[in-house]
Amino acid sequence: MRDEPQHSPDPQALLDWYDRHARALPWRIGPAARARGALPDPYRIWLSEIMLQQTTVAAVKDYFLAFTTRWPDVQALAGAEDADVMAAWAGLGYYARARNLLKCARTVTRDHNGRFPRDHATLLTLPGIGPYTAAAIASIAFDAPETVVDGNVERVMARLFDEHTPLPAAKPILTDHAARLTPQDRPGCYAQGVMDLGATICTPKRPACGLCPWRSACTAWLRGTAADLPRKTPKKRKPTRLGIAYLARRVDGAMLLETRPDKGLLGGMLGWPGSDWTEDQPADAPPIRAEWKTIAGEARHTFTHFHLRLTVKTALVPMDRLPLRGEFIELPEFRPSDLPTVMRKAFDLAQGG
Question: Which residue in 187, 72, 205, 176 sits closest to 135, CA to CA?
Fold first, then answer.
């Protein structure tokens, strides 16, 4: 077997493959519809890209459909109540994205007449839009020849060029490879095609090289190294932090909740009053005077940089008892589904206890 490809990867071969095998996604205008003249909606492209950051397509689909049903365009989202958007986002994680989502929608509506800018540089000035998202919107929504590089694209490029520099140090090298391959013709379809290739064929484990349109141009396939790429720098071990969540129920069923500060983890989200999350045993500081019961077990959750173990305490309080923190939410208005995942875990543990 040869260990060097006889030709460079052909963008047209990838486009031909995409035309036949493109994934059907709720935010996407497929290649057949695109050929008939249908145009992507920049709002839907932007919303999907924000939702897909650090999240899978499978996890995002239902959230995307719910958002676009409730807020079908950027003006509708700009006029939404903050609390409604944060509640609708609950469970998707990385809640700073939801705060920036509102800021961006309002900026586009106020400063750009409700239309997303077409160029990469202006897109970068919008809240919550970084280089990748700006490139994706410009490419997919407006067919600009921008270089779009997500995790799927990095994996495809690492294998095509047999690049063994570990990530994240390899990012500029892989981006340079991706830039050289990006065509002037149909760059939006090409960008989506490379991402689809990585998601369905050039997968992290057991890539289906026999089905790949770029197989004969793939150096890693020819050298037998595809399954080992991309290499990654070993991650540091995540620390564990401890905390206390206080779940107080008033005798009429109302629940004591608070809105977390805008900055920091779960910023702007509704949650249970609690302690700081520290690596040492947290101080016990209940938000209301009551006889607190400690529930057996812990609510456990993993964030990007640490594991969290929450002790859950519950109490039943009289109608006239005033909290030191937070406010009581009447039972008909309390929806556990509006809580971020870690707070729902605490609630579920309390229900079981």
Answer: 187
**What gap in Å lies between CA 180 and CA 158, rounded to an integer?**
14
CA atoms within 13 A on the CB side of 260: 23
Q: Which of 4, 49, 146, 154 is catalytic?
A: 49
Per-residue burial over 18-57, b = 16 or more CB atoms within 10 Å of its CB, e = otherwise: bbeebeebebbbbbeebeeeeebbbbbbbbbbbbbbeeeb
Respond yes or no: is residue 163 known to be catalytic. no
Residue with structure tokens 């996407």?
28
Structure tokens at 160: 């095509």
More confident position, 55 or 233 = 233
Pairing assessment for the beta strands 255-259 and 293-294 based on DSSP bridges: unpaired
Cβ distance 43 to 116 under 8 Å?
A: yes
What is the pTM assigned to this prediction? 0.82
Q: Where are the alpha helices (DSSP H) in the chain?
A: 11-21, 31-35, 42-52, 57-70, 74-78, 82-89, 96-111, 120-123, 131-136, 142, 151-160, 171-181, 187-200, 219-223, 341-352
Please name the residue that has the structure tokens 């609690």. 274
What rounded mean pLDDT belongs to the chain? 94
* Contact assessment for residue 5 and residue 219, using Cβ atoms and an 8 Å cutoff: yes
The residue type found at 146 is E
How far is residue 54's CA from residue 72's CA, in Å, rounded to a whole number? 24
- Closest C-alpha to 95, from 53, 61, 134: 53
